[in-house]
Amino acid sequence: MMQNPPRRHHYIPEFYQRKWIGEDKQVERYERINGAVIRRRVFPSAAGFQEDLYRHPRAEMDEWDAQALEWAIFKKIDDAGASALEALISDQAALRDNVVRSNWAVFLRTMLMRTPYQMTGVLASLEQIWRNTDISQKYASMRKPGMPETATEFLEMLNPDEAKESAFRMFADAIGSDRTTRHIMKLPWKIFDCSTADHGLLLSDHPVVLVPLETNDGHIAMPLSPTKLLIAAANDRIKAIADSLQPKLTVRIMNKLVVQRAQHCVIARNKAQDFFINKHFGTNPIPPFLSPKALERSAFAPKTAISSQ
């Protein structure tokens, strides 16, 4: 075991980025810094990460325990995702392998929540849920004279960071298989070869284009590499649209959505799409997967991935 726990937490895992490396084993990393989009050629280890992103919010605790979300949970998900990605790209039969599908579906779902932008929104929502949980009757039955009036005040008296820590625990518990993951697994999956397109598919911190699965046009699109695109859809109309598109148009549509929704980082194999990335970087961000505002409404409906042009 390493002497110290890993502090460089990748929200775009290195194994995923490696599909975009050139002969020099590096990628083009685009980041927005002080309003400007900055490009630099780097190794995947130096792209799509933030130090201590998944660290427990409590300052005083064993560092291995504090970093457990990264090394004990995300590492296992990413290792399984790496094997699934290799299988999906190299063997069409993998599309019917339940282990491969499950591992990739779990990884896919984490990509909706693990960026700094998403983490901020999700943790704020979970903290709000914690504060809104009604345990007033139970607290009233145990309250003694001199104790705070509300259960929330009492718990925060014992630990001022209780709300943040509870939100973090709920987030950690939510990572992994759930109803959304199982729904994704049940959809028909298809991998499209886009190798004849003028440009390659791009990667960003928001690579998953998700149209609510409970809607008639619900579907998912996600780049697997610069030339491979995964689409999961049950609707025959959506599948027909996907089948009818030429690779050049498919890549243009997908790249625009992936780059427009980026908040932190875009990954490319080379500089060929430099102007395109600078033009569209972060121009149409998607609300956090679970945000305080999202809690106030039943659902939100982003643009259709493969039918919007």
Keywords for this entry:
single chain; 309 residues; alpha+beta; four-stranded antiparallel sheet; 13 helices; 10 strands; 15% strand; globular; disordered C terminus
In short:
This protein has 309 residues and is an alpha+beta fold. It is 42% helix and 15% strand.
> Which structural class best describes the helix and strand composition?
alpha+beta
Order of helices and strands: EHEEEHHHHHHHHEEEEEHHEHH
The rounded Rg comes to 21 Å
Biggest sheet features:
4 strands, antiparallel
Strand order of the largest sheet: 3-2-10-6
Question: What's the number of helices?
Answer: 13
Shape: globular
Percentage of β-strand residues: 5-15%
Query: How much helical structure, as a percent, in the residues?
Result: 40-55%
Which regions have little confidence, pLDDT < 50, spanning 5+ residues?
294-309
* Number of E-state strands: 10
Instruction: Kindly report the average pLDDT value.
Output: 86
Alpha-carbon distance between the termini?
49 Å
Describe the structure.
There is one protein chain. Mean pLDDT is 86; it is low at 294-309. The protein is 42% helix and 15% strand. The chain is globular. With 309 residues, it is α+β, with helices and mostly antiparallel strands. A 4-stranded antiparallel sheet has the order 3-2-10-6, with helices on one face. A 4-stranded antiparallel sheet has the order 5-9-8-7, covered by helices on one side.
SSE layout:
Layout: E1 8-10, H1 14-17, E2 27-33, E3 36-42, E4 49-51, H2 63-66, H3 68-90, H4 98-110, H5 116-132, H6 136-142, H7 151-158, H8 162-174, H9 179-186, E5 189-193, E6 203-204, E7 209-211, E8 219-223, E9 228-233, H10 236-244, H11 247-260, E10 265-268, H12 274-280, H13 292-295
Antiparallel strand pairs: 1-4, 2-3, 2-10, 5-9, 6-10, 7-8, 8-9
